[in-house]
Amino acid sequence: MSKVIHVAVGVILGRDGRILIARRPDHLHMGGRWEFPGGKVEAGESVQEALTRELREEIAIDVEAIQPLTEIRHEYPEKTVLLDTWWVTAFSGEPRGLEGQETRWVARDELDHYQFPDANQAIIEAIQHSKVTG
Length: 134
Ligand SMILES: Nc1nc2c([nH]c(=O)n2[C@@H]2O[C@H](COP(=O)(O)OP(=O)(O)OP(=O)(O)O)[C@@H](O)[C@H]2O)c(=O)[nH]1
Ligand SMILES: [Mg+2]
Description:
Bound molecules: 8-OXO-guanosine-5'-triphosphate, magnesium ion
CATH superfamily: Nucleoside Triphosphate Pyrophosphohydrolase
CATH topology: Nucleoside Triphosphate Pyrophosphohydrolase
Number of helices: 2
Order of helices and strands: EEEEHEEEH
Number of domains: 1
Largest sheet: 4 strands, mixed
Number of strands: 7
Strand content: 35-45%
Structural class: alpha+beta
CATH architecture: Alpha-Beta Complex
Distance between the termini: 40 Å
């Protein structure tokens, strides 16, 4: 039994309704695929704190408002993740990949054109069914 890795994931909504995606660096798990920015929740940290920290570290924005989107548990052969996924409906700063990641704003109905980790299919469906529009 491997333990579940708790991950805070942000679906960042731009003013025009598009969503920010970033390309995972090649050397990481699921390298080269697109993702929603975020990362592991550390000991003693709430998921909201982790989300705020990760989005500052990875894409240089300050989170100002979030809403719950979905929680996806997925078993990869090498690990099991719980993707605790939140809409980011307000933020300050201009997103840019601080770790060298390519970033891109994408319309909701174009998310299907990008290759994400396998766990993300369920997130994309939740986005496409969500009434949140910013
Ligand atoms: N951030 C993020 N992680 C995802 C997504 N989908 C998905 O399966 N994951 C998986 O969640 C796990 C943890 O995410 P991460 O690698 O971003 O964690 P992190 O930023 O803390 O990285 P670090 O361990 O290098 O410090 C990875 O195994 C990653 O493949 C996604 O959309 N966004
Ligand atoms: Mg990360």
